[in-house]
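in:
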């Protein structure tokens, strides 16, 4: 504390004192201007704590609350005594406030002790304010009750502020941050210090029950596993519920989940859950999608060629289903219909259906159709271009595939081994090349499990001309061949009719020509006779 007086000329000494509350002085330090010595009075509170400089500045070490006094600097000359006071204020910053005796949990609609905010060792005394989410909590009857206590330590003179908060929470206080701030004074003015925020577990009763279907798929199909989950919005949430299943009058007590495995279509319906006291109920509707397919006939079916086979694929589903047919791994454009079975109708048929809106719901059944037939044979022959051999072909139909044998009656050389074409749609052909030295008979024998068929063909010697028969056409060109045959027949018939008409016309013409000739001859004869008569008459006249 600098002495607020100017040091006068003729100064003898200077002194410092402080004033008691009753105004009486207590001297604590003395310094002579001439002897340059310093003396400190025997005052216990300031023992070994004082220092007085040459310019009469008084320093006090280890400031205490008790140092808050009115100190006076005195400068003495022979003629005068000057005094000037210095008022000392002492401040002590409190410790950081902390919230103690915190409640374990808070229950709504109930006024309860939230905690105590304590700030210690403050001077002068401070003030405590409660905050929630950064906003001041103002006292409200039976909702916010604040009680502040300030206790002074008689030894140190420091204050401890304790503020208790009673609070009635609501659901909105979940995750709310409570804190307190102590306001105190320092040399530079008012200051504040804040506690660490505290979040309390707020308990409140359930007000709404919700039922869910897990997994949360838009569609459920037969065979799925379903978990019903019931939840309440209270804190803590309810741990037990009653589940009501369609067709059951009483609720099933369970935890917050109820599991149904491998559900069937009869599980479709309304499901409910409630608290165990049967209050606050919620419901949901579950639709279990299904898909049935009935293929008639199915499995392996064996029929004879030419027979009829009705085929039906019946669908029963919870939604409109898409149906398609597959034959031998190729999708068909239309459903199969067999009024007269052919060998090409044989194969593996699949009727498949799906529910497009329901993932994974797909059904299929198969029909393995076998078309059997006794061997049928047609033989053809042709003279090869070299005019040295003939090719004899045995066209065979039948299923199971017939085995083919050849026999030759007569003299002739078989130039090549028997060759067979690929067996397709119950048809194939076997051929041999022969150079017959004389008329021979070739026999084709086709045999399967159903029958043995034998057909023979006479083949002239290679040097004897004969009409060769065309080879059989393939199935793919059968209609074209038939049409061509019909055209040829029509042309032939037309030519025959033209020839017949031409013949009739010619016959009529010839007949008419002969008749005319007779008349001409007759006329010529009459002319000759007349000439002879004229000549005779002329001679007689002579």
């Amino acid at each position: 504390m600098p002495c607020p007086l100017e040091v006068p000329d003729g100064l003898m000494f200077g002194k410092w004192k402080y004033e008691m509350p009753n105004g009486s002085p207590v001297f604590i330090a003395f310094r002579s201007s001439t002897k340059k010595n310093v003396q400190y009075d025997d005052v216990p509170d300031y023992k070994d704590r004082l220092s007085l400089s040459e310019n009469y500045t008084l320093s006090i070490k280890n400031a205490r609350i008790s140092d808050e006094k009115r100190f006076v600097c005195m400068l003495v000359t022979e003629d005068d005594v000057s005094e000037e006071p210095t008022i000392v204020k002492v401040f002590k910053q409190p410790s950081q406030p902390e919230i103690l005796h915190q409640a374990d949990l808070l229950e709504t609609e109930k006024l309860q002790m939230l905690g105590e905010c304590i700030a210690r060792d403050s001077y002068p005394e401070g003030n405590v304010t409660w905050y929630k989410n950064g906003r001041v909590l103002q006292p409200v009857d039976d909702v916010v009750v604040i009680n502040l206590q300030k206790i002074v330590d008689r030894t140190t003179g420091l204050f401890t502020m304790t503020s208790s908060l009673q609070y009635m929470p609501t659901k909105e206080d979940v995750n709310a941050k409570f804190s307190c701030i102590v306001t105190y004074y320092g040399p530079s003015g008012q200051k504040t210090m804040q506690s660490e925020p505290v979040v309390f577990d707020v308990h409140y009763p359930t007000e709404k029950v919700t039922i869910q279907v897990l997994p949360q798929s838009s569609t459920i199909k037969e065979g799925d596993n379903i978990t019903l989950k019931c939840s309440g919005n209270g804190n803590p949430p309810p741990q037990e519920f009653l589940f009501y299943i369609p067709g059951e009058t009483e609720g099933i007590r369970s935890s917050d989940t109820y599991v149904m495995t491998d559900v069937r279509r009869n599980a479709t319906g309304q499901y409910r859950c409630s608290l165990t006291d049967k209050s606050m109920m919620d419901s949901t509707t579950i639709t279990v999608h299904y898909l049935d397919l009935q293929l008639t006939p199915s499995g392996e079916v064996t029929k004879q060629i030419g027979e009829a086979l009705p085929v039906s694929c019946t669908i029963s589903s919870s939604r409109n289903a898409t149906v398609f047919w597959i034959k031998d791994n190729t999708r068909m454009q239309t459903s199969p219909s067999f009024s007269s079975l052919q060998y090409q109708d044989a194969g593996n048929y699949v009727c498949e259906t799906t529910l497009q809106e329901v993932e994974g719901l797909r059904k299929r059944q198969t029909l393995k159709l076998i078309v059997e037939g006794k061997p049928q044979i047609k033989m053809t022959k042709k003279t090869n271009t070299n005019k040295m051999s003939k090719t004899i072909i045995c066209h065979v139909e039948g299923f199971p595939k017939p085995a083919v044998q050849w026999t030759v009656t007569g003299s002739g050389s078989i130039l090549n081994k028997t060759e067979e074409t690929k067996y397709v749609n119950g048809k194939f052909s076997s051929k041999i090349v022969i150079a017959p030295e004389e008329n021979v008979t070739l026999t084709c024998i086709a045999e399967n499990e159903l029958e043995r068929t034998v057909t023979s063909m006479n083949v002239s010697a290679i040097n004897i001309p004969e009409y060769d028969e065309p080879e059989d056409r393939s199935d793919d060109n059968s209609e074209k061949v038939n049409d061509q045959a019909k055209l040829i027949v029509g042309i032939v018939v037309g030519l025959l009719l033209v020839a017949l008409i031409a013949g009739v016309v010619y016959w009529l013409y010839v007949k008419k020509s002969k008749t005319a000739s007779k008349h001409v001859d007759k006329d010529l004869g009459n002319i000759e006779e007349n000439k002879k008569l004229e000549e005779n008459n002329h001679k007689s006249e002579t």
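note: The first helix runs from residue 478 to 541.
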